[in-house]
Amino acid sequence: MRGGVRCALRGGQTVSGPGRGVHRRAGVTMHDVARHAGVSTMTVSNVINGRSQRVSESTRRRVLASIAALGYRVNMTARHLRMGRTGMVGLAVPGFESGYYPELAGRLADRFADHDLRLVMERTGGERQAELDALAAARLRTYDGFVLSVVAGDAADLEKLSIDTPIVLIGERAVPARFDHVLMDNVGGARRATELLLESGARRIALLGGVLGDEQSMPELRARGYREAHEAAGLPVDEDLIVSCCFRIVDGYAATLTLIGNGVDVDAIFALTDSAAVGALRALADKGVHVPGDVQVIGFDNIAESRFTLPALTTVEPGNDEMAEAICSLLMERIEHGGASRPARVVMPEAKIIERDSTRR
């Protein structure tokens, strides 16, 4: 059920519940529906569960009309208990402030709702112990499946865990080969973003949120793509243009103001998240810097708000829908067919550039 107010049935029929204009009598049961429609409870069950091949079309319509008239709703809690399930999938992410994670949660909630599963979010704060605690056996018993964004943990930590609940890991960190893993093409996406700026004539590209290092973290991987684009163009990287900062709007705003205040010469800004790029746009506007005429700006993640900034933000689309679809499909396979039903898979969609008004060709 989506939003707890309706139950979608096969054949394009939707039975409305509370909140959709139907006055539901308390305690309406499947037996009441069967009696109202003049059929057996098994026939009602067949209609509700989409076993239309066992029911004539005229009978199916009569049952659906009775369901609507009585305001009957399927008791999903009882159904899940009979199946030995909780009806919930967990999603643990570093935080809720960034535009990316709430949008990911929305995409996943929609997809899991199609399987009558509710999504529950947890926050790890990007801390190693909190990520490991999220995978504790006692906590996982609450869920039919679990999705964890790995930010601080490493493969050695995860390898020690004994986990029976179906799991999908997301994020850039290396993980044990026994887990399904969905991740972004951070290096390729950052390289394409930097190439776009270089092709437009930019030569002083500030990297907001970049860090030096060879670990498999998001800022390090995106900084690697930034460097690869410069190297392929035969251009040096000015280390002063790699600015360490966090990834919220306020962080991008503060980092950009610092660049301007320090008199650093920049003709483009590549922010490692769209949220930081939104902050950069506001800082440039506050200082009277024209975008894209004076300074071009590009972000990463293609969050919904990026279309509505002024100017509209050019960004890296990492394959948001493809990743959400893969996460849901991989987890549902495990839930429905057992944890050891197949070898683990790794999914990494191709990153693409969405060009808008904050950059120029």
Structural features, described:
This protein is an alpha/beta fold. It folds into three domains: 6-74, lambda repressor-like DNA-binding domains (434 Repressor (Amino-terminal Domain)), CATH 1.10.260; 84-184 and 321-349, Rossmann fold, CATH 3.40.50; 186-317, 3-Layer(aba) Sandwich (Rossmann fold), CATH 3.40.50.2300. Helices cover 39% and strands 15% of the residues. The chain has 13 helices and 14 strands. The strands form three sheets. Strands 4-3-5-6-7-13 form a six-stranded parallel beta sheet, sandwiched between helices. Strands 9-8-10-11-12-14 form a six-stranded mixed beta sheet, sandwiched between helices. The longest helix is centred in the last third of the chain and has 18 residues, at 320-337. 39% of the residues are buried.
In short:
This protein is of the alpha/beta class and 361 residues long.
How helix-rich are the residues, as a percent range?
Answer: 25-40%
**Gap from first CA to last CA:** 46 Å
The 3D shape can be described as elongated
Individual helix count:
13
Could you tell me the mean pLDDT? 87
CATH topology of the largest domain: Rossmann fold
The major sheet is characterized as: 6 strands, parallel
Q: Strand fraction band?
A: 5-15%
